[in-house]
Specification:
Helices cover 32% and strands 22% of the residues. With 793 residues, it is α+β, with helices and mostly antiparallel strands. Residues 369-635 form the Dynein regulatory complex subunit 7 MORN domain.
Length: 793
Amino acid sequence: MRLVHVHNTILTEHCDVPHCLEIHTGRERACVCVCVWIKGLGMYECPASYKENSAQERKLLAMVGRFRREFADLFPDRRPLLLCPFNEFGIRETAHTAFSRSLIPVYVFFVFFAINQKFVCTTLRPTMVPYPDLYDWDTCASFVADHLSLELLEPPIDPPRYLLSPTLVLHHHRGTCFDFSTLLCSLLLGDGYDAYCVSGYAVKEICQRDQSLQECPLLVTEVKVSEPEQVNKYTVKPLWEPKSCFEQKQQEEAKALQLKKQHEAQLLQEQPPPDPLLGCRVHCWVLVLSGRRDVTENFFIDPLRGQRYSTTNEKFLGIDSIWNSVNYWVNMQDCSQGCAVSAWGYTSAVGISPDVYQFISYGCLQCRPNGMGVTHYRKAKLERYSPYLLPDGLMTRLTTYKDLKCTKASMVKEGYQNRNDRLEERELNMDDNVTTERFGRFARFTHRYVTYNTDTEREMEFYSCGRYDKLVRRVESPGEMTETFQGRRDFLYYRHVIFAQQVLEPGEMPESDVRPLQVKILVERFQRNRAKPASEDVAERVFLLTEGRIQVTCHFPDDRLFRAKRIFTKPRDETRQKYSITDLVFIPMVRRPHTHTHTHTHTHTTGLPSSRFSKQKLLTILASREQEESNIELRSSVYQAVCIEKARRFKKDMERIAEEERLWRQERENDILAPFLMKLGNTEILCQTAAVQVHRDCLASLKQKLTAQANHIQKRCEKLEQELQQKQEWHQQNLANMTKEDEDKYLADCHDTMFMVHVAKLRLSRHEATAPLKYQALDEKLRRDPRLAPHLH
């Protein structure tokens, strides 16, 4: 790659301009510095470094000008390089009358300065910010891509004539791709990366920030490696069925061919139309070279998306020039094959400047332009919001669709922050009608996941470390409930309850609190307790309440293939109080049988109320969730409290400005001189000639309006008389063939037309009588106006 060396440049100081308007005139874009006067704030004064160049800068611009002329002579076929664009103060005109006060809701004074060009290298401001979130290239790229809104180049085949400073871009949260790259490169240089701005050409999707054909990165899930199931080698193997390997191979090949055809047809359908400007669209991105900050290979960063690309990526079609804060290089290699460059031999020393840091605050890292950003992907849409923008704490909303046109939603995934109920994520599956909610720690009921499948199937996961019962998971289905535990002292890890079907009374609702739920079957399973012998350590306990039995199964002893199984049967005779014991598999016990009977019967009396309590607790959680959703509250930190106070003050200022604008507009609407004063630049003080001219124009305008009204009424009257005459002629021609109904209709039409003619003549006569009075009244009103009165007497 041949390089043309320009010259080492000199860094200059820049500052911000808090108010900047844009004028779009044909194919050019101009930025106008507007000094805004707001009552109570005073006049903003811009430093001189933004409005003029120093002696060293003028010398540098002269050298760059000579290089520009020599380059144009040597390479007449090359497009002009982006060397010295205007900054936000580079305005040619000294006056402009295209603006009115209706464009700005405050009192505005336009200040235009002479031509002020800046070399592109001096626009870069290497900046290190004291935030760990902006110390790596990926976080810096994400910050720039999310924090700014894009302005497309107009026309897309030419570089911009204006390159704004990074501080102004940060302040206004918007800019072109060159402004994006300048800000990102300034941050990367401050963080120690060997970064450069690249001016070149890219495809339409890159230039326009179009990601509608890409998969959403949030939908790419990691493939979980499942552990193979342990197969018991002593199980009976199923009968072998003879299969043809040749037929199976043919079926697999046919299936693969069909999938390939479907994939190709889908790609052909999704392929965008050919771009007529392919290879001509100007774009600016960032190059990071290896060697610093443990960067092992060169790569590109697209500042519009915040993504990393290889230097040989086919989306970047060519390079015109590259620059950093100390030097500028021009590409002399043919880029017809893209950006596949063999060597990038640049070296530079970078100094740190604190200018940009002044406009990057802690709250600025999470804010977005206009409070939100929307990105369209392939069959997906991602919405991101600033903290505390929405009252429910919504931060992200990812919607996936079934079709490419994004009309049929398939799944909605929402992310929340700073909610008092600790809700962090909610996922709604439209196909299965399943809602899943994920909560953070310290939630009210220590739940982690809540899944609703219709109105009857629910699933909850809990933080077991925060619960006294060590509950991990609870699944409810119609008539059943399953609970899973972890780390209990009684070694219980599973409980399954089957409720008896309720017979509802007239007017009683299902799952009512009036009557307790009746348990039909209760199953409990326990882990091995090594402190007990296996013959007395219960592995599973089943309460068959309708049959009056308790089935107990113990764990396997270490040296046996069988385990103890017992059945405790409740006596049917009320006079007997002891359970009968039946040993299905007898193993000698250390303790006496009546001790086991007392243990299981005591569990029977305490376990059933616990199952009913779990059911009622589940209903309580659901009722509490409904109440929390109806009354959402957000918690705020110390940093966010300051941001909220600033937002409140900003909102009050905007409301005050809007009210002032409304009053000003209302005053202008009632001011008859407003259209005529606008032609004179909205001046409030008039000279003799201007006052006489405004008086004459105002009377002439009224006279023209009155004449137009009289002509309109006269034409209406003549048209009605002509219609009446045509009806009379038609009546004379068709008199012999007319019926009584036609005669009645003719008379009614003639009567209506004659009435409208009479009304039109009355309006015309009244207008002719009142027109001189209106003219005289306006003349007297103008002579009494304080702006015209001193010059008309």
